[in-house]
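Help needed: design a sequence for this.
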């Protein structure tokens, strides 16, 4: 087998790994670059491998930095199968068309207000491109061996993180190449712990939190304090949250805090069509996570689901205290941007980030103390209070990844550390070498490795 790194090398986004056996080629993950402009522009660069050379694509999970490039490959002509777990397939049916729609919407907005350098602005792909891509999804159950090519089999193992997320074992008859995907936390509020791998001759592991340990804090109490302070000031709490996983976790936590009278019964709004649909999928797949049917019912009864553009505009203009959960989690796009334009200039309000903020994103700039932020071509002053709670992250920290790696019965000959900023990947690689004694390397973009 040969392995080439076509994304998530030196960064936490754009995951793509090319696996080659004799005359066969598959892509493990097909992620979109997100965040700073430098990375977003890479989405428009051609891959070193043509769509007609690929026999199949395998997805670890549905987050766009792992699946969001798929509609572009299909637009270019890829017609092969895309293998993923049932949960991932269901979430891709939500995320991918929404991604295409938002790109079209952003292009229209840029054209109307003239803040794009392109004339006319055009989306990377459309909603229709994404809908065509969905027809190529092939659901595969966890734990079973699936023969996808004459000389190649795969197996999905639960990785925690979000619904449907998996670590993937790729077997060519002699080598076992494993991909961690995004590893979840053993103590996650809604997802079960990641399942350990039995064997990995070679391993690609993520390092999002490779240089950090999650805060030892009562995250629920910290959230309650921020909400109570904002409500007393007559302000609104805005929680940018990833539509899949994080939004559902936050709604569950808000419901618990209200039920325990730890926060006032302020109106709670979920303003993200994608997050609303994802919440419905979480409810249907309740046996795959910790939330019971009753938990899901309580979330529904508490939450005002904002579905239409008109409802969203009215909500953005409201001035009475409330809690708004909206995507995206790094404030890189979506309806949350319209809320930020109204909420940031008012000192009574609070913007509460509840997860990882990638370098260069609006979220990262805000939590780093920016006094103004550019949204839709306008400089918006930052007077609202900015809170950042990493304790809600769905990624395992460095110690939790070491714990997960240490459960592999047959240690790998080589570990490739990816999906992390430079410092995080270096720290993760060193920690693996010191604590486990395994050989590691940090590949650069387009690097190739021959698996002996």
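Sure. Designed sequence:
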């Amino acid at each position: 087998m040969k392995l080439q790194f076509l994304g998530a090398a030196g960064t936490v986004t754009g995951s793509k790994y090319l696996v080659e056996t004799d005359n066969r080629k598959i892509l493990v993950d097909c992620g979109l670059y997100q965040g700073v402009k430098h990375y977003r522009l890479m989405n428009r660069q051609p891959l070193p491998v043509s769509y007609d050379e690929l026999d199949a694509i395998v997805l670890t999970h549905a987050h766009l930095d792992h699946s969001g490039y798929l509609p572009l490959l299909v637009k270019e002509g890829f017609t092969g199968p895309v293998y993923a777990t049932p949960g991932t397939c269901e979430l891709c049916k939500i995320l991918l068309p929404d991604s295409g729609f938002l790109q079209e919407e952003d292009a229209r907005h840029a054209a109307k207000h003239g803040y794009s350098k392109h004339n006319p602005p055009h989306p990377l792909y459309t909603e229709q491109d994404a809908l065509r891509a969905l027809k190529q999804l092939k659901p595969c159950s966890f734990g079973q061996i699936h023969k996808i090519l004459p000389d190649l089999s795969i197996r999905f193992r639960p990785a925690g993180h979000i619904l449907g997320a998996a670590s993937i074992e790729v077997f060519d008859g002699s080598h076992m190449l494993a991909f961690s995907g995004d590893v979840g936390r053993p103590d996650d509020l809604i997802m079960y712990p990641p399942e350990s791998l039995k064997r990995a001759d070679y391993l690609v592991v993520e390092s999002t939190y490779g240089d950090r340990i999650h805060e030892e804090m009562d995250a629920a109490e910290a959230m309650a304090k921020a909400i109570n302070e904002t409500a007393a000031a007559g302000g609104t709490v805005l929680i940018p949250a990833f539509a899949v996983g994080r939004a559902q976790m936050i709604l569950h936590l808000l419901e618990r805090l209200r039920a325990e009278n730890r926060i006032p019964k302020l109106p709670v709004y979920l303003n993200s069509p994608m997050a609303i649909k994802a919440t419905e999928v979480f409810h249907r797949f309740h046996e795959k996570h910790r939330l019971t049917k009753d938990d899901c019912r309580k979330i529904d009864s508490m939450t005002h689901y904002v579905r239409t553009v008109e409802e969203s505009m009215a909500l953005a203009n409201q001035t009475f205290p409330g809690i708004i959960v909206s995507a995206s989690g790094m404030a890189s796009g979506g309806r949350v941007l319209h809320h930020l334009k109204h909420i940031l200039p008012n000192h009574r309000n609070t913007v509460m980030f509840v997860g990882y903020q990638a370098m260069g994103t609006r979220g990262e700039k805000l939590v780093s103390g920016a006094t103004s932020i550019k949204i839709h071509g306008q400089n918006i002053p930052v007077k609202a209070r900015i809170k950042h709670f990493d304790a809600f992250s769905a990624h395992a920290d460095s110690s939790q990844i070491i714990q997960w790696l240490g459960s592999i019965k047959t240690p790998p000959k080589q570990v490739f550390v990816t999906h992390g900023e430079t410092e995080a990947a270096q720290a993760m690689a060193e920690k693996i070498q010191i604590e486990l004694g395994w050989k590691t390397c940090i590949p650069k973009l387009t690097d190739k490795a021959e698996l002996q």
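The radius of gyration is 21 Å.
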